[in-house]
Amino acid sequence: MPRWLPRAMVLALALIAAFQLGSWAFHQLTSLLINILIAFFLALAIEPAVSRMAARGMRRGLATFLVFLGLTVLAAGFVTLLGSMLAGQIIKMIEGFPQYLDALIRWINQTFHTDLRRVDIQEGLLHSDWLRKYVQNSAAGVLDVSAQVLGGLFRLLTVALFSFYFAADGPRLRRALCSVLPPARQAEVLRAWEIAVDKTGGYLYSRGLMALISGVAHYVLLEIMGVPYAPVLGVWVGLVSQFIPTIGTYLAGALPMLIAFTVDPWYAVWVLVFVVIYQQFENYVLQPKLTAKTVDIHPAVAFGSVVAGTALLGAVGALVAIPAVATLQAFLGAYVKRYTVTDDPRVHGHRTRGPGGPGMLTRVRRLWTARPGGRRRP
Predict the structure, then answer these.
(1) Rounded distance, CA 277 to CA 256, Å?
(2) 35, 94, 272, 305: which one has the fewest Cβ atoms less than 10 Å from its Cβ?
(3) How far apart are CA 257 and CA 241, in angstroms?
(4) Residues 6 or more apart whose Cβ sits within 8 Å of residue 370
(5) Where residue 49 falls among pLDDT bands split at 50, 70, 90?
(6) Secondary structure string (H, E, C) spanning 320-342
């Protein structure tokens, strides 16, 4: 046996063990890494506001706290309004359930010539095995939902804590990162950081402005038609339509259509028509003007990045995909050499004749005029 073979075997086994250990640690820390990624992009989004307040003499930690306080108040207000709306609709459905049940029983009796009564149906449901099993499963489901809610709150607290530290200690974090890099690399890192701040903040601020415009427009429509909970529905449409790209408007319009249908079925149709028209106005008029200087990427690239981000990281990837791609595009744009495009008709989508002679249409026309019964040009 060669003398180097035992050392090589030990080294190979050590590398395999290190790889297995690293893979296990990465899978165990995936949730934490995703939370850190969300916190980093959130810190980038609020960086302009924090820096502007810090430039006016305010402590950076206090400025970050005030920004987070404002975001928390807005989120709590939205959740409260949405919860009150859903609670009101559920109470309304529960109060109207006996009338709905009576109407259904009358229709069944008239159609199938039966003699059903609501009291018999209620007693049958109360003493059925199906209801007992449903209650047992619901009790177990409540525990699962409670655990998920607690886990979500802990995850939200983790993201808020990391994003607060990233935003409050941003200059210190940049200095620590640059201290281990040579001066040439430091300039590139700082430039990439600045581009990420501009693109992420610009994306969220432009989306917030479009969400405000969309929410006000849908609120005015719902208020004119007399649809209940018009303010919270306007906020719902504005947020969902802007932060879920491409199909967010139609997903957000489903809830106002459902509420409008309870008032008048034709109101739901009018809401659908307004949603479609507003989507076209937003795509061709509003969005190009607001996002031209912040997130200048093609709609197809934006949609593809959202699909890829969703496949990789789920809902988190869908949220951070567009600013991440915009940052990468802007950063690489400085290192890609561009040339003047030649003045060729094919650049503008016009086809030219090939080297083989005239085009197909010209050849067919010549054959038609050259046949025995065809007309010849003088």
Answers:
(1) 15
(2) 94
(3) 14
(4) 376
(5) confident
(6) HHHHHHHHHHHHHHCCCCCCCCC
| 378 pLDDT higher than 50 | no
Residues 253 and 275 sit within 8 Å (Cβ to Cβ): yes
Distance between CA atoms of 217 and 204, rounded to whole angstroms? 20
Q: What angle do CA 34, 39, 45 make, to 5 degrees?
A: 130
- Asked if residues 257 and 287 have their Cβ atoms less than 8 Å apart, the reply is no
* Contact (CB, 8 A) for 155 and 35: yes
pLDDT in tens, 64-73: 889 889 888 8
